[in-house]
Amino acid sequence: MPVLSWKCALGSGVVSLTHKKIILGVTGGIAAYKAAELCRLLVKAGAEVRVVMTAAAQQFVAPLTFQALSGQPVLTSLWDAASGDGMEHIHLSRTADLVLVAPASADFLAKLAHGRADDLLSTLCLARSCRLVVAPAMNREMWAALATRRNLEQLVADDVTVLGPAAGEQACGETGLGRMLEASEIAAALSGLLSAGPLAGKRIVMTAGPTFEAIDPVRGLTNRSSGKMGYAVAQAAAEAGAEVILVSGPTCLTPPAGVRRIAVESAAEMRAAVLAELPGDVFIAVAAVADYRVDGAATQKIKKSTDPFTLQLIANPDILAEVAALPDAPFCVGFAAETERLAEYAEAKRLRKKLPLLVGNLAQDTLGQDAAELVLFDAQGQHPLPHADKLTQARLLVRHLVTLLN
Ligand code: C5P
User: Fold this and answer.
1) Binding site membership of 320 for ligand 1 (Cβ less than 6 Å)
2) Does the N-terminal peptide bond of residue 136 adopt cis geometry, omega within 30 degrees of 0?
3) Can you give the pTM of this predicted structure?
4) CA pair distance 52, 76, nearest whole angstrom
5) CB 267 near ligand 1, within 6 Å
6) Catalytic residue among 39, 130, 172, 252, which?
7) Closest by CA position to 288, among listed 326, 319, 325
8) Adjacency order of strands within the sheet including 48-53
9) Under 8 Å CB-to-CB from 15, ≥6 apart: which residues?
10) Rounded to a whole number, what is the largest CA-CA distance in the chain?
């Protein structure tokens, strides 16, 4: 039974950024302190980092901090008489491989969305020809504000890559969406974007999480699934350089950096979203799709009574089997959670759904856990992966996928 070599997949996900020229723009927000660690990680990965700070950013962290970490003078003004011919915004943006703004404040996102250029950072963002990545950080109400939503939509339409934000405790004492991603997560995402990873140029459509099948407007049927495995696979695929579209049922998870999430509820919505995102090179079905939905869900709340109550269920479409049977089917990867006889049931499922690769696990070992024990089934046989956290398992799965694609 071949066992995959797994040592080198256990790292942080940051691969080498040697000789990559990154402009790190820092705007005004408390998360500016995290940008110092980010600068250190990028330099450690081999990148040449030039830091540009807005006036507000300098209220939070001194330029000297970034100068010490990047080994380069920090640029703060469009009007710096000492900087050559006064065209620093043009020179900098011409030589950069990528501009990263982290943290990106609500104000700076608004500026970018409107193409304003009234300081060095906004001017070089407008003058650049390389990729622009932003890692927003702000109070949850500011993130939810309609104006910010509009600005974000515009930036995504303008091909700006948005990393995060994450949910959690905020500096203002409130809890919600708006925290900047951790420095290590941003660095890992950049290495995926900048390195010609083994999945560069590949489009991967995925499903994750449970589906929710309505009984009436307030009740429903669902499967037990945290979505953790699917989100880990999405992160690992993005780190390997793929374009990842994650069609996700209801979960509490934040989409991994660089991954585009489409939120759905029912199996029917999941199927429609997947088919709309195809064609792709790879389809990975991690979702725990409900096998049945309610025939004729009620449009009004069903009143409680003590009488016996019968639900008529009808089978949901099998999204994976349908995609695998398409004439221009992508390379399809399935998951199978079993409670017994894993090898027998998983291999039978792989053959029935005509899949080149199926990932099996024992449901009782995995459900809701942070670690997993997976076995890969393909035409060559079984490949058990070592017991490890889900992200490590996901990275090993992606490595195996790469070898099969090649
Ligand atoms: O539920 P089952 O064990 O058949 O799931 C196996 C694989 O098929 C999983 O990858 C799951 O995401 C996928 N699936 C699907 N649509 C369904 C049921 C399962 O895509 N309706």
Assistant:
1) yes
2) no
3) 0.69
4) 6
5) yes
6) 172
7) 319
8) 48-53, 21-26, 98-104, 131-136, 161-162
9) 45, 191, 195, 197, 239
10) 84
3-state class (DSSP) for residue 134: strand
Cα 321 to averaged position of ligand 1 atoms, centre (Å): 8
CA 196 – ligand 1 centroid, Å: 32
Q: How far is the CA of 9 from the centre of ligand 1 (A)?
A: 27
For residue 22, the surrounding DSSP H or E stretch is strand 21-26
Ligand 1 pocket residue status of 132, Cβ below 6 Å: no
Residue 346 CB less than 6 A away from ligand 1: no
Residues in the chain: 406
Distance 349 CA to ligand 1 centre (A): 9
Q: What are phi and psi of 310, to 5 degrees?
A: -115, 135
Residue nearest to atom 9 of ligand 1 (CA): 335
Whose tokens are 């330029």? That residue is: 63
For ligand 1, what atom is nearest to the CA of residue 320?
Answer: 20
Q: How many CB atoms lie within 10 A of CB 31?
A: 27
Instruction: Please tell me the distance from the alpha carbon of residue 303 to that of residue 129, in angstroms, as a whole number.
Output: 60
Is residue 336 in contact with ligand 1, taking CB distance under 6 Å? yes
332 is catalytic: no
| Per-residue pLDDT of the chain in tens (406 residues, 90 and over written 9) | 333 333 333 345 555 788 899 999 999 999 999 999 999 999 999 999 999 999 999 999 999 999 999 999 999 988 765 566 666 667 777 789 999 999 999 999 999 999 999 999 999 999 898 899 999 999 999 999 999 999 999 998 888 989 989 888 777 777 788 999 999 999 988 887 887 788 988 999 999 999 999 999 999 999 999 999 999 999 999 988 899 999 999 999 988 888 899 999 999 999 999 999 999 999 999 999 999 999 999 999 999 999 999 999 999 999 999 999 999 999 999 999 888 999 999 999 999 999 999 999 887 766 667 777 899 999 999 999 988 899 999 999 999 999 999 8
Sketch out the chain's domains with CATH numbers.
21-194 (3.40.50.1950), 203-405 (3.40.50.10300)
Specify whether the CB–CB gap between 333 and 283 falls below 8 A: yes
Q: Select from 240, 155, 166, 210 the least CA-distant residue to 367.
A: 210
The amino acid occupying position 266 is S
